[in-house]
Amino acid sequence: MEREAIGVGETVIEAQEDACRQLGVESHEAEFDILQMPEKKKFGLFGGSPAKVRAYIVMSPAESAAKYLKSILDAMGLSDITMETKETDGGCEINLTGEAVGAIIGRRGETLDALQYLCGLVANHVENSYYRITINTGNYREKREKTLEILGRKLAFKALKTGKNSALEPMNPYERRIIHTAVQKVNGALSWSEGESINRHVVIGPDPKSRHYNNRSNDYKGRGQKKPYNNGYKKPYNNKTYNKTATDTNTESRTPKNEGGDFSLYGKIETNK
Q: Residue 172: beta bridge partners?
């Protein structure tokens, strides 16, 4: 992406400095085209004209995202945060370090996600092709993914044990996909998404078609115990999305639900999957 500004001054140097101030860069960071040389007034009274200079800079998507992020952090009073930008396949990762990174992460990563989303919008104004921006700090993304995987498996086993559904808090598409993938590794459990927009969340429950679950429900017979009403399973509406299980496809393959696409968080994805 190219940014430019026209500077005016009594001399070429002053015109260059004026253009750089408009761009918010130092003079060594920009390129210049002289549009008009200064002319002195005749007899010190008539005519004359100032110098005009065009200054321009060419910024990559990564540079644009990093510059925008730095301006936000400065506005938040976090000017001591260090940014390290690393180019990746089809995008870049910006890693943040400093004492106040907790304020950047926010509650369950909500602030970090919002910053990443905004920086992604800025980066994708630079080129026509999609450019993926990932913002991380202290391996938070990896730790969050591991936590979600454990949570998904835990609730899947709970569904098998109790025969009841468990609804999780609203999550973005990327995190929902992590939960779906974890649940798919537990035979007899399935997950689906409910809600719209920011209230979209995952529900985990027993698979009524699963042989394991049906056999377990039969254990209530002959023990003098009352079988739970409808096995604790609530039939979902038609607009809910499901994970296919081995009993659905008669195969051992269980392809993960694509709630996050092949991109990282807030990439080019459909949010209503």
A: none
Round to whole Å and give the CA distance between 30 and 36.
Answer: 18
Q: What is the pLDDT of residues 171-183, one digit of tens each?
A: 888 899 999 999 9
Is 146-249 in CATH node 3.30.1370.50? yes
**What 3 state SS string does 54-113 have?**
EEEEECCHHHHHHHHHHHHHHHCCCCCCEEEEEEECCEEEEEEECCCHHHHHCHHHHHHH
What is the three-class DSSP state of 35?
strand
- Fold designation for 61-138: GMP Synthetase; Chain A, domain 3 (3.30.300)
Q: What is the pTM of this model?
A: 0.58
List the structure tokens of 214: 């049906």
pLDDT tens across 80-110, in order? 889 999 988 888 999 999 888 888 888 888 8
From residue 260, how far is each of 125, 156, 197, 214 by CA, in Å? 22, 20, 14, 32
> Two tokens at 174?
């990327």
Q: Which tokens sit at 90?
A: 């089809």
pLDDT at 39: 87
